[in-house]
Amino acid sequence: MRRIFILLFIIIFLTSCTNTKSERNEVSDTAEGNVVKNEKTKEQSINNGLSNDTEKSEIDKLSYSDYHPVVVDGLLIGGSKTNEWLKVENITSLIKGNENYTVVDDKYDVETGIGGKTEEDEVTSAEYINIETDIDSEGTIVSYSGSWKPINQEPQKLETENDTYKKITSEILMNHGLVVNDPQINAIYRLDFDGDTTDEVLIEASYFKDDYPSPAPRKGSYSLVFLRKIVDNEVKNIEILADIYPEDLLFGKGPSYLNKILSIIDLNGDGRMEIVIKSIYYEGYGIIVYELNGDKIEAVISNVDGV
Ligand SMILES: [Ca+2]
Ligand SMILES: [Ca+2]
Predict the structure, then answer these.
(1) Distance 93 CA to ligand 1 centre (A)
(2) Residue 231 CA: which ligand is closest?
(3) Ligand 1 centroid to 197 CA: how many Å?
(4) Residues with beta carbon < 5 A to ion ligand 2?
(5) How far, in Å, from the CA of 230 to the mean position of ligand 1?
(6) Are residues 132 and 163 located together in one domain of the fold?
(7) What's the number of domains the chain is made of?
(8) Which of 57, 80, 234, 289 has its CA 20 to 30 A from that of 151?
(9) Quick check: is 285 in a domain?
């Protein structure tokens, strides 16, 4: 009899544990009926850049100054110091050359590198830094002078042919006066950007009716990047960049932009991931780093190479 009681107690105890766990880790994305599972992102965080012990010790052995420049594909974007973001003009004078960098490619492979002094482009005066590194990649390379991990969770890439996200994208385009029934989504990422234990979803959707870059995009063109976040139990769309053309843009009436997500990475070492976006226009490009704060997206550092 006693044994049966003990067994019953164990079963009840285990059942109650399981229930609590699933309630805590799942938040329903009400607008699309999706369930956001945070447990999954926690598991993924084990398998990311810098989990390799050899790489980690190599980075830990190096010394880093208290200012942390950020370089994306050679272009100096700004940096940080004691958790404050520094614009390009405020960090340039601090950079002496010979700084150690953590170098990360688009697959989150990590190497170390040594950076030079800033060099200005002769035509545009944009500030570049050459970083000597062994990394071998055709994709975007993001470097920062600091020893922290580039990611604490790997972003989950979702299938772009997704009717739910197409519908949401159509609604946003409609709010900007453009009717598109079957929008072209280029990328969907899911992860917890702000560390509040609930995943956000980041979406990039672009389409141009003529060859890009064009100084005069035609009616129906768009380039949209937005984030879906749960705020007060409701899913909110936070627009990051919305270049949408419900009418032809006449030549000379302003540049048009093609916006691409280059990287999702922690660039100031606070454990939260930023979004790095390249915004290409007719005569150049800009790189902008965005940080999610509450329900606001803020551009924290950036630079432009162009006229
Ligand atoms: Ca979150
Ligand atoms: Ca960060």
Answers:
(1) 35
(2) 1
(3) 6
(4) 266, 268, 270, 272
(5) 8
(6) no
(7) 2
(8) 234
(9) yes
23 inside domain? no
**Domain of 165, in residue numbers:** 156-306
- pLDDT of 31: 41
Question: Cis ω on the peptide bond leading into residue 217 (within 30° of 0)?
Answer: no
The H-assigned helical ranges of 116-273 are 163-175
For residue 228, the CA-to-ligand 1 centroid distance in Å is 10
Which letter does DSSP use for residue 46 in this model? T
| CA of 148 relative to ligand 2 center, distance in Å | 10
Ligand whose nearest atom lies closest to the CA of 200: 1
Determine the distance separating the centroid of ligand 1 and the alpha carbon of 33, expressed in angstroms.
Answer: 18
> What value does the mean pLDDT take over residues 205-213?
83
| Residues paired with residue 20 on neighbouring β-strands, in sequence order | none
pLDDT score at 49: 52
Residue 20 lies in a domain: no
The SS3 of residue 91 is helix
* pLDDT on residue 56: 61
Q: Are residues 237 and 96 in the same domain?
A: no
Residues 256 and 165 in one domain: yes
Is the predicted pLDDT of residue 221 greater than 70, yes or no?
yes
Out of 82, 110, 144, a domain closes at 144
List Cβ neighbours of 259 (8 Å cut-off, separation of 6 or more): 204, 206, 223, 224, 225, 240, 241, 243, 277, 278, 279, 280
pTM: 0.83
Task: State yes or no: pLDDT of 222 exceeds 80.
Answer: yes
Once rounded to an integer, what is the mean pLDDT over residues 182-187?
98
Q: What residue type is 10 in one-letter code? A: I
Nearest ligand to the CA atom of 80: 2
In a domain, 266, yes or no: yes
Of 109, 144, 179, which residue sits at a domain end?
A: 144
pLDDT tens, position by position, 229-256:
999 999 999 999 999 999 888 776 777 8
What pLDDT was estimated at residue 19?
Answer: 40
For residue 195, give the ligand nearest its CA: 1
- Do residues 125 and 168 both lie within one domain? no
Residue 179 C-alpha to ligand 1 middle, in angstroms? 30
